[in-house]
UniProtKB/TrEMBL annotation:
<feature type="transmembrane region" description="Helical">
    <location>
        <begin position="336"/>
        <end position="358"/>
    </location>
</feature>
<feature type="transmembrane region" description="Helical">
    <location>
        <begin position="132"/>
        <end position="151"/>
    </location>
</feature>
<feature type="transmembrane region" description="Helical">
    <location>
        <begin position="189"/>
        <end position="212"/>
    </location>
</feature>
<dbReference type="Pfam" id="PF05977">
    <property type="entry name" value="MFS_3"/>
</dbReference>
<keyword id="KW-0813">Transport</keyword>
<feature type="transmembrane region" description="Helical">
    <location>
        <begin position="370"/>
        <end position="390"/>
    </location>
</feature>
<keyword id="KW-0812">Transmembrane</keyword>
<feature type="transmembrane region" description="Helical">
    <location>
        <begin position="42"/>
        <end position="60"/>
    </location>
</feature>
<protein>
    <submittedName>
        <fullName>MFS transporter</fullName>
    </submittedName>
</protein>
<feature type="transmembrane region" description="Helical">
    <location>
        <begin position="402"/>
        <end position="421"/>
    </location>
</feature>
<keyword id="KW-1003">Cell membrane</keyword>
<feature type="transmembrane region" description="Helical">
    <location>
        <begin position="281"/>
        <end position="301"/>
    </location>
</feature>
<feature type="transmembrane region" description="Helical">
    <location>
        <begin position="247"/>
        <end position="269"/>
    </location>
</feature>
<feature type="transmembrane region" description="Helical">
    <location>
        <begin position="313"/>
        <end position="330"/>
    </location>
</feature>
<keyword id="KW-1133">Transmembrane helix</keyword>
<keyword id="KW-0472">Membrane</keyword>
<feature type="region of interest" description="Disordered">
    <location>
        <begin position="1"/>
        <end position="20"/>
    </location>
</feature>
């Protein structure tokens, strides 16, 4: 573990380095330990239903825009409008999450999301839907995300407390990826069978179920923290905390590269399904399911982590981008699908590790603001990346764009590792192994000991 900078006051919690979280690998029987908490179990069930429905809506939305406009770039614009509010207003969402009840904020945000999904369903099923309708509703949903995302991240601590926080974050990611695996497949079949309008109706019902679940939670069993008082400079304090703490700062830098380039994968998958493999909506759903299946494996694997460090974040980032580069020019959709599965593992190893590292490295009183800045980068970056990747896919082709989308994060991970090594925070240790010691790594990036 790297020591704090010499100028840091002793015991200053804002300048600590990345920290090991556990010294022992958890027992297999404790893989789902946070589900033993009744409130989290209720929340997890509603979260799974909601994620399946959200992914059904997202696939139907993207494919509908592609059919109405005939343009992959238009799909990128939809992604941008949905994520742009987080890029601009994200920090204020964190302030709101720190000041008010997270449960109340989630009830409000999910109620608005239900209304938007119902509006989309009526327009689609009546045949009146136009591209601008999708753009407008996507933008409103983006405004909802500004408050929903940081509140949802911090609310996990209210549900399980600090002891089971890491496990709950990993399970939340696993649930998200399970929903992302099932949702696109169902949506693809639904689009082919009866049209995408019903996906929006199902999502509206799922949002209502989430609201009812939040209302049913036992408030006396929540580990709610006292709201942060209104004061000047709260945004500045959150930003200074992020910048001063290496674990959070470098993780956020990694998230920026991944978000802008690699996380626009659904836009690229639409292009591959439409123009490279010509497999239509069903193929698009299958490719998203493969990516999500790998992500589920990566999320579950993250529950076995014994430490949280930047080298794990950099490794996941490299694997995610690397598999995308390898997949770019494979001639077979089957091989491409298998590589998307592998890319999904790398993606969630990165995302879950980054999320856990930021949350566990942040004091609870300021966590909403720090998480909002992190989510602003992770979600808002896709607002920049979506149109850019869509434009590149339309103008230079899906395959070279896939190389760019995966290659830039790989190069960034290498560059960040070099910077950290030059600053003395990381060093490369070479180890020789014998036939009797195959478990030891040949090369490992480890914190430098002064």
């Amino acid at each position: 573990m790297a020591p704090p900078p010499p100028s840091a006051p002793a015991g200053d919690p804002t300048l600590t380095a990345p920290i090991p979280v556990t010294s022992q690998r958890p027992a297999w029987r404790d893989t789902f330990i946070s589900l033993r908490i009744p409130n989290f179990r209720l929340f997890a069930i509603s979260h799974l239903i909601a994620v399946v429905a959200v992914w059904m809506q997202r696939i139907a939305q993207d494919w509908m825009v592609l059919e109405l406009s005939g343009s992959v770039a238009a799909v990128g614009v939809t992604v941008a409008l949905q994520f742009a509010p987080m890029l601009v207003l994200g920090p204020w969402g964190g302030v709101v999450a720190d000041r008010y009840s997270k449960r109340t904020l989630l009830i409000i945000s999910q109620s608005v999301a239900a209304l938007m999904a119902a509006a989309m369903a009526v327009l689609a099923l009546s045949g009146l839907i136009e591209v601008w309708h999708v753009y407008l509703i996507a933008f409103v949903l983006g405004l909802v995300t500004v408050v929903d995302a940081p509140a949802r991240q911090v609310f996990v601590n209210d549900l399980v407390g600090p002891i089971h926080l890491r496990n709950a974050i990993s399970l939340n990611s696993s649930i998200f990826q399970l929903g992302a695996m099932v949702g696109p497949a169902i949506s693809g079949l639904l689009i082919v069978a009866v049209g995408g309008g019903w996906a929006f109706a199902i999502n509206a019902i799922a949002c209502c179920y989430t609201v009812l679940t939040l209302a049913r939670l036992r408030t006396d069993q929540l580990n709610a923290t006292a709201p942060a008082p209104r004061a000047k400079g709260q945004l500045r304090a959150g930003a200074r905390y992020l910048l001063d703490k290496p674990a959070i700062f470098w993780t956020t830098v990694c998230a920026a590269f991944v978000a802008v380039f690699a996380l626009s994968t659904p836009v690229l998958l639409a292009a591959f399904a439409d123009s490279v493999f010509e497999s239509g909506a069903g193929g698009y759903g299958l490719l998203n399911t493969a990516l999500a299946s790998g992500s589920l494996v990566g999320a579950l694997a993250s529950t076995r982590r014994t430490t949280l460090r930047l080298r794990g974040v950099l490794g996941g980032m490299t694997a995610f981008g690397g598999f995308m580069v390898i997949a770019a020019y494979v001639p077979s959709q089957l091989v491409f699908t298998m590589l998307m599965f592998c890319a999904g593992i790398g993606c969630l190893w990165f995302v879950t590790g980054a999320n856990q590292l930021v949350q566990t490295s942040t004091n609870l009183a300021i966590r909403g603001r720090v998480m909002s800045l992190y989510m602003m980068v992770l979600i808002g970056g896709q607002a920049l990346g979506g149109p850019m990747i869509g434009w590149l896919a339309e103008n230079i082709g899906a395959q070279p764009t896939m190389v760019i989308a995966g290659g830039v994060p790989v190069l960034a991970a290498g560059g960040i590792a070099v910077v950290l090594a030059r600053r003395g925070q990381l060093t490369v240790r070479f180890r020789w192994t014998s036939a009797h010691d195959e478990r030891r790594r040949l090369v490992a990036i480890v914190p430098k000991v002064s």
